[in-house]
Amino acid sequence: MTGVFLGAADALDLDGLYREAHASGGSPADALVLAGRVGLFAPRPGSGSTLALWECLATLAAADLTVARVIEPHLDALAILAEARVPDPEGTWGVFAAESPGTRLQAEYDDGGWVLSGRKPWCSLGTRLDRALITAHVPTGGRRAFAVDLSRDSVRPVAGTWVSRGLAAVDSGPLDLLRVPAEPVGDENWYLARDGFAWGGMGVAACWYGGAVGLARRVMETAREREPDQIGLMHLGAIDVALHRAAAVLKDAAQAVDNGEAKGKEGARLAARVRSVVVQSAEEILSVAAHAMGPGPLVHEEEHARRVADLQVYIRQHHAERDSASLGAAVLSLDPVPW
């Protein structure tokens, strides 16, 4: 068994998916080919099969986090386009919605159509994808999502900005856009306000969980190679607890999404809780794995060393204490107190 199973009723071939993802060896080109195939059968969040989708994402991440990092935003883009009732999108897609100080992408309506100009940060595989959903500031003060053809000459990568050791093959540097034609997707501020924004964030957490499962399996291999002492058994116990709590919140959240109980502010709070629990579990397993196995696998095993570096970068999509503070503010406003 190589797939990551959380108990979904839907019968996806997770073992086969794992083998395909693992065989890619972290190649973004191979991952993009696989993304096209996975997009044909992966369920959409909120469709009644959310847990099956998250099993799919976790399986990809357990096999290879680089592959998961390529495919997850493609599936997220397809879900967003479906939510916006955009028919039959073609090609490979990304979602570029991050902001950073000192950069701004501006949308203007000119001569009967929208154009985007400026710099957009965190554009993963911006030079390899066919299209992307990109958020930009609009003249009325909000932000809006747009579909953009990334093959245009007026879309230019900023060279030399991606030096990461984790997810090294997934260049996520900025793009410069110069009056690039764009098609609006949803109304102003729809992208951030829709229910699927929270659901997509929990899909990313499923990838973090899968990456942690991959690390846990490597620790288990070590434990079975030689009989563990009490400290080794303690490591396994800690890993089991960390994975159990992460799996539990993912399963509960998937049910809430499919039951219509994860909408609006409640959906946002649920996503914040789930992401925090999963990232805490992943961080604990990163630490326990290092203690359990020492430096050997980190310096001698390409797959393990890359998995550790990839997961360390990937989980930083969670904003640590700042996300906890945002959740705290949301909880403080509740009446009655939720616990």
Automatic annotation (TrEMBL):
The molecular function GO annotations come to: oxidoreductase activity, acting on the CH-CH group of donors
> Which InterPro entries does UniProt cross-reference here?
Acyl-CoA_Oxase/DH_mid-dom_sf, AcylCo_DH-like_C, AcylCoA_DH/oxidase_NM_dom_sf
Tell me which domain of life the UniProt entry assigns to the organism this sequence originates from: Bacteria
Mind telling me what this protein is named?
A: Acyl-CoA dehydrogenase
Species in which this protein is naturally found: Arthrobacter subterraneus
Q: What does the organism's lineage look like at the top?
A: Bacteria, Bacillati, Actinomycetota, Actinomycetes, Micrococcales
